[in-house]
Design a protein that fits this description.
525 residues, alpha+beta, three-stranded mixed beta sheet, 14 strands
Length: 525
């Protein structure tokens, strides 16, 4: 199932990871891959029938103190015609997503802790001489949330005589002026349902409803990544908070617009912004992810959950914690950002984890409804997440999909189980090589997490065409200036040298995913 990321302009197809599928044991592959199982898969959206032969799973695949508020009596207005949109760009019917197609599930919003952020009077002084910038950022984000706490979003219904329609989605931003040391709340309206927007392909239509400032759309359309920049005159205003409504998709599908607006849940959250990028938050995000992954491993070890891939061993001793931490980053690193910025793209994601910790990427929802930091999917109890819950009972995973996939440590435990199941379906040669160097040979379970068993087989065949033996694979190094090697690549040891070898084209998206994995792995050593 392909993933069409809103925030990227992928140069290769995207796949949601992980997704449920059926893998049926095929006849033996040609000699070069005779030891590797071949898998047939169905899309994530298909129901999960259990064949009598072999059943396996393919994988492929917020602000600190985050809070949501129910809107009891939202302001409703009526209008017989839509208001003109600034930067109005015609959107063809084929470009509009189906109702609620990237909508955050209401259950995710309802699972939030309803804790109000500190009021401005309860906050320490925002700018204190000698304070580190990361602490100042945290204070500003906390006060930005406080500023948005009592802000009401204006819902406008168009039409009349029983044919009213909710016109758009109101969004509010908390803006800080360094020059004037004060706050401004900016109100915008964006299209609803979300449109298929990609960078470089026209601007996102929106209406700015706050006079005296200017706004520019940066990226995203949904709850996780929608971001604008703002200015007043020559001053760029800093964005430290955003209020975004989540609608009940059932009511939207039934066209019960007034009821949908009345029951909307408003998420106070802060998508990534350069204003919150700080080296200490990047380091903090790395440490937080690794500590959370180790916590997941400790729970699996205490429960003595056995490995399916390596009988007689514990699951917690099979999958390294740093592999799981890398997945939490690369699942949220846009391919376009990685191609343009390299490893700096990882810093953007790590800073989110450093600032928001458990709340980071709770609202990450793909067009195929892959949810949360680890991008699990489910479909009425017959998808990947539910299969893992049933298959890895000793892990005591949360059986509720929306809750379990958005709680990081639980989602990490589910990812460990899934990688182990994927490994159990691979050839003995791959499993033996993996057990000797699980971090380096992690390219195989990672390939499965992203694209399933077929991509594992393709990667194995590609390495054979390159003449690369599994025992020769090493950690990624740095390409020398002027190198003729084009990455995505793998690194092999030849004598006393470790050199890069380009991966032959077999699946550009999956090989790019492996490149991201190899590039970030050393950050978690």
């Amino acid at each position: 199932m392909q993933r069409w990321r809103q925030q990227g302009r992928p140069r290769y197809p995207q796949y949601d990871a992980p997704f449920a599928s059926i893998m049926v044991m095929m006849s033996l592959l040609p000699p070069v891959s005779a030891l590797l199982s071949s898998f047939a898969r169905v899309p994530r959206g298909a129901s999960l029938a259990l064949p009598l032969l072999v059943i396996a799973i393919c994988s492929g695949c917020i602000a600190s103190g985050g809070r949501i508020e129910p809107v009891d009596d939202p302001p409703l207005g009526s209008d017989t015609a839509p208001a003109p949109l600034l930067h109005d760009v015609p959107v063809a019917a084929s470009e509009a997503k189906s109702e609620g197609d990237s909508e955050v599930p209401v259950a995710v919003a309802e699972s939030e802790q309803h804790e109000a952020p500190p009021k401005p009077g309860d906050l320490p002084e925002l700018i204190v001489r000698g304070r580190t910038r990361d602490l100042v950022i945290r204070d500003l984000v906390a006060e930005g949330q406080a500023q948005l706490r009592d802000v009401q979003l204006q819902y406008v219904l168009t039409g009349k005589n029983g044919h009213e329609v909710l016109r758009g989605r109101p969004v509010a931003f908390a803006l800080w002026s360094e020059a004037q040391k004060n706050w401004t709340i900016a109100h915008l309206e964006i299209p609803r349902p979300p449109v298929k927007w990609k960078p470089g392909r026209g601007e996102l239509p929106f209406t700015l409803r706050t006079p005296g400032i200017e706004a520019r759309h940066v990226k995203g359309t949904g709850a996780e990544r929608l971001m604008f920049t703002f200015s007043r005159g020559d001053e760029e205003l800093k964005v430290y908070g955003r209020k975004f409504p989540v609608f009940d998709n059932t009511l939207i599908k039934k066209k019960r617009w007034r009821e949908a607006a009345a029951t909307a849940r408003s998420i106070v959250y802060l998508p990534f912004t350069r204003d919150t990028l700080d080296p200490r938050l990047i380091t903090g995000g790395r440490d937080f992810l690794l500590a959370t992954a180790r916590g997941a491993m400790d729970e699996l070890r205490d429960a003595r959950v056995p490995s399916e891939a390596f009988p007689g061993e514990l699951l917690a001793d099979v999958i390294p914690a740093q592999v799981i931490a890398t997945l939490a980053v690369i699942e949220q690193t846009d391919d376009e950002d990685f191609l343009d910025k390299g490893r700096d793209a990882f810093d953007d994601v790590l800073s989110q984890y450093g600032l928001k910790r458990e709340e980071a990427y709770r609202y990450s929802v793909s067009s195929a409804k892959a949810l949360g930091p680890m991008q699990f999917t489910d479909r009425r109890g017959h998808g990947t997440y539910s299969f893992v819950v049933r298959s890895c009972r000793g892990a005591q995973l949360d059986p509720n999909f929306e809750r379990g996939s958005t709680r990081l440590q639980n989602a990490m435990k589910a990812a460990v189980c899934l990688l182990d199941i994927d490994l159990s379906q691979m050839s003995s040669e791959i499993r033996t090589a993996y057990r000797a160097k699980p971090d380096v040979l992690g390219i195989f379970p990672v390939a499965a997490y992203n694209g399933g068993g077929r991509n594992v087989a393709k990667l194995y065949r590609a390495l054979n065409r390159m003449g690369v033996q599994l025992a020769e694979l090493r950690r990624a190094g740095q390409l020398p200036p002027g190198s003729a090697v084009v990455c995505p690549c793998v690194w092999r040891e030849e004598g006393s040298l470790v050199q890069a070898v380009s991966i032959p084209r077999y699946n550009r998206e999956n090989s790019g995913y492996i490149e991201k994995y190899q590039s970030i792995l050393s950050l978690f050593d």
